[in-house]
Amino acid sequence: MWTKAKAPSLAEMEAMAHEIFERLPKGFRKLCEGVIVRVDDFPTDEVLDEMQAQSEFDLLGLFQGVGLPFRSNDDIARLPNMVWLYRRPILDYWAEHDETLGHIVRHVLIHEIGHHFGLSDADMEAIEATVD
User: Fold this and answer.
1) Name one Pfam family in it (predicted).
2) Tens-place pLDDT, residues 51-82
3) What dihedral angle (degrees, nearest 10) is formed by the CA atoms of 109, 21, 44, 120?
4) 104 or 130: whose pLDDT is higher?
5) What gap in Å lies between CA 66 and CA 77, rounded to an integer?
6) DSSP run (H or E) holding 47
7) Is residue 103's pLDDT more than 90?
8) pLDDT value for 29
């Protein structure tokens, strides 16, 4: 049984993130229209510098773009909002904690999308609770 166990690839983790996203509350998903979810092994050096991370393992995810509370109708065209999930730091966190990989991915996804909406930690916890 254990001889075939392996960490998910980038594509497998991205598919997992999209499946988890589809199970989030419909109203929450509707507000996320246009947000792109991507998975990469690690954040870029520029992101690490910008976030003042001590290590490439410090960030599990990141929202990049202009959050809804900060948009205006006068905004010029911009890149789409994106949520990045970082596979290797997530796998490292998973190895050190007693949580399922799906729970961790869901938590990071909700947390990063929550930044898009300017939600509080309590709001994000409430959304997570509806998915359990």
Assistant:
1) Zincin_1
2) 999 999 999 999 988 755 444 555 555 677 89
3) -30
4) 104
5) 11
6) helix 45-50
7) yes
8) 83
Q: What does the pLDDT average to over 84-110?
A: 96
Going 101 to 103 to 105 to 108, the CA torsion angle's sign is: negative
Handedness of CA 68, 73, 78, 79 (dihedral sign): positive
Taking the C-alpha atoms of residue 3 and residue 14, their distance in angstroms, rounded to an integer, is 24
52 three-state secondary structure? coil
Structural tokens at position 117:
């909406």
Cα–Cα distance for residue pair 9/19, rounded to 1 Å: 15
What sign for the dihedral angle of Cα 113, 117, 118, 121?
A: negative
What 3-state DSSP class applies to 68?
helix
pTM: 0.85
Residue found under tokens 């948009």: 71
DSSP 8-state symbol, 65:
S
